[in-house]
Amino acid sequence: MDAKEQDDTAHQESDKPGRKKGFLMIGLVVLVLAAAGGVAWWLHARNYESTDDAFIDAQVVRIAPQIAGIVSELPVQPNDHVAAGTLLATIAPDNVMPVVARQKAGVSEARAQAASTRANAQSAQAALHRANADVSEAQARYNNARSNLARLTAARDMNRGSVAANDLDSAQTTLDTAKAALTSAQGAAEAARAQLSGARSAMQSAEAAIRSAEAQAQGGQVSLDQTHIVAPMSGSIANLSINTGSYVAPGMDLMALVPDQMWVTANFKETQLVNIKVGDPVDITIDAYPGRHFSGKVESIQRAAGQEFQLLPAQNATGNFVKVVQRVPVRIMFDKPLPKDLAIGPGMSVVPTITVR
Which pTM does this prediction carry? Predict the structure, then answer.
């Protein structure tokens, strides 16, 4: 080995401790930076709770008819936005109209019958008034005849020659006639009273028949109104499954109405709930629109884990048990109405981030 090679070797051996020290310093700096970054991330992350097991939710209304028939009009198309009360479909009223007409005729007939019984009751009332007047008149005549006979009898008892026998006989005959007339008038009044009672019963029955006919007619009108299916609230048409001319039956799904008001159902781990409170602000991002942020608030927290409502809930009382962290639905409401130019609907994935501190 010549002198130059010996010098290079000695120089390399002298540089090894310095190089090791440099690597050590670099590693130490990296470690410090990583620790600082981890602490900073923890200090920031501890203020938030987030989950990607979340989606847009809403009370979707299934539109179904209440009567059977042929769809004669369908003025809406899929994805149309409609206001509350908008006509969605019309069912041909061919089967309903004859029933409604028959029921209306029944109401008219019942009212005519009631008018007749009412007139009969009024006539019976007038007849009773006349009969009562006849009774009063007959009672007065009877009282007068009895008083006259009593007067003549008393006078004869005091002086036998003062009253002729013919006068007493005539007074007695008058009294008998008056009594017979009173009895007849009382019988006529009783008959008139019974007739009035029957007329009033008939009138009550006729009025009940009117109410029954009107109830049937009202039911027919309800059925006629049900041929027009209207939107119960504002929203968008979805899952339209019929066409003009389709036959529909009661309870059949015609379409769905997605309401304008929506919210987020976020399934957080049960271990995250300790920091979440009702009213906490939420930043929401929707997977379909990355970069767009929506604000909201925690409205409520379900008092049961989601698995409790499964068709076959977990049975942990027997066999081997493996603990699984459960998910609990948290309802988050948007602070503002969602933009109408964005196609946002139930089932779409979102990521809510709740500020808990």
Answer: 0.64
The mean-pLDDT minimum among 37-41, 234-238, 246-250 falls in 37-41
| Dihedral sign of CA atoms 346, 351, 356, 357 in order | negative
CA atoms of 288 and 84, how far apart (whole Å): 28
**The residue count for the chain:** 357
**Residue 127: HSE in the Cβ half-sphere, 13 Å Cα cutoff:** 18
Beta strands across the sheet bearing 228-230:
228-230, 87-91, 69-73, 247-248
Architecture of the domain whose range is 61-91+229-257? Beta Barrel (2.40)
SS3 assignment, position 78: coil
Distances (CA, A) of 192 to 125, 195, 356: 8, 5, 88
Spell out the domain ranges in the chain.
47-59+258-355, 61-91+229-257, 97-225
CA distance linking residue 217 with residue 99, whole number of Å: 9
Q: Encoding tokens for residue 6?
A: 């010996």
Taking only Cα atoms into account, the Rg of the chain, rounded to an integer number of angstroms, comes to 50
Alpha helices in the chain (DSSP H): 3-45, 97-158, 165-225
Report pLDDT digits (tens) over 304-326: 888 877 777 666 666 677 788 89
CATH code that applies to domain 47-59+258-355: 2.40.30.170
